Structures are given as C-alpha cells and as structure tokens.
User: Which sequence fits this backbone?
C-alpha cells in the first residue's frame, strides 16, 4: 500500500508552464488616481494662477465731498456735500468748513477759528475768537449753530470722537444759555433731517 501523500502528484498533470497569477488592479487604480490629481491640479491652477487679462484701470477721483450740516426749519439740520481736492490737508478742510459756516450765516463774520488740534483722546479742540461767546441767538438757532459746527467737523475727521469748543483758548459754558458747551460734544443724529 502506498503511503498517503497530501501533495498532488504533479507528474500526472500536463506541463502548462509557470502558473499564472491573477492580475492586480493596483496599477489601474494608480493610473486613474494620477489622472484625477492632474486634472484637479490643472483646474486649481486655471482658477487661481491664470494670467489675468488686461487689468482694469483704477479711476481715482481727484475730489472728495465734505459733509456740511446747515440749519433747516423748524429745528433740524440738513446735509450737503462740498467738493474739495482729495489730497487736501486738514487745515484746508477746516478752512472750507468754516467758510461754509460763514457763507450760510451760521457763524457771523466777526467769529474766527484761531487754531485747532486733536488731543490723544480723539477730541478735536476748536479755538474760536472771543466773539463766539457774545453771539445773541434764540434757543433753536443756538442748538442749530452748535450742532452745525459739531456735526460738520465730526463727519469729516474720522479719527475724531468729540469736539471741544473754546473761545480765546478757554472752554465756555454756553453761547446763549441753551446748549452746554463746557465739555466735549459728540455727533447729534437726532437733529438731522428725516
């Protein structure tokens, strides 16, 4: 009797050459993955790094509009723009605002702004001549006068938070008894035209 051998007897099988292994799908998957990556990279490069067409010209305006607040009946303020050169200095802006205040009879011709400065707290100090305190105004006109000045300056100087009115270098309590001016005053939007 022959001993049982677990290995097949290859002597009885025909010789077909080396046995074929099943083909791996990995190379196909790698090729497909590379094609997808190249396509995605091309799309990304097209969207983000493409050479731009001729750049559009940037038009820089030579002028800007200063906001000027002026009295309107019954007790409101209107606003209009005053065009000035875009590269105007702060001194030139101040001169334009003061001229507009005088042209619109908000400030009398005898009142002049002698100096202005901004303190570290963002308060703009406006030092007027002493004639500022002797103006005789009715209560509504005093409110409109004070806030025409305050709103006009605050609207045109971005870093300024409040205005301190001075006359002859000193703060004053009021022009004619209606508006308290001894401390810095902020922008008043409640008096604006609807």
Assistant:
């Amino acid at each position: 009797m022959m001993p049982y051998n677990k290995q097949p007897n290859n002597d009885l099988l025909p010789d077909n050459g080396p046995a074929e292994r099943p083909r791996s799908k990995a190379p196909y998957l790698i090729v497909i993955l590379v094609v997808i990556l190249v396509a995605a990279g091309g799309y990304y490069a097209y969207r983000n790094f493409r050479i731009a067409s001729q750049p559009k010209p940037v038009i820089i305006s030579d002028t800007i509009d200063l906001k000027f607040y002026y009295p309107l009946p019954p007790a409101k303020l209107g606003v209009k723009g005053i065009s000035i050169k875009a590269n105007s200095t702060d001194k030139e802006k101040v001169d334009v605002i003061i001229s507009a205040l005088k042209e619109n009879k908000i400030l009398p011709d005898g009142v002049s702004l002698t100096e202005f400065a901004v303190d570290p707290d963002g308060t703009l100090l406006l030092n007027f001549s002493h004639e500022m305190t002797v103006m005789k105004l009715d209560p509504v006109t005093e409110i409109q006068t004070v806030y025409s000045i305050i709103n006009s300056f605050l609207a045109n100087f971005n870093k300024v938070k409040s205005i301190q009115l001075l006359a002859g270098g000193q703060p004053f309590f009021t022009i004619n008894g209606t508006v308290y001016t001894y401390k810095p005053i902020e922008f008043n939007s409640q008096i604006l035209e609807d």
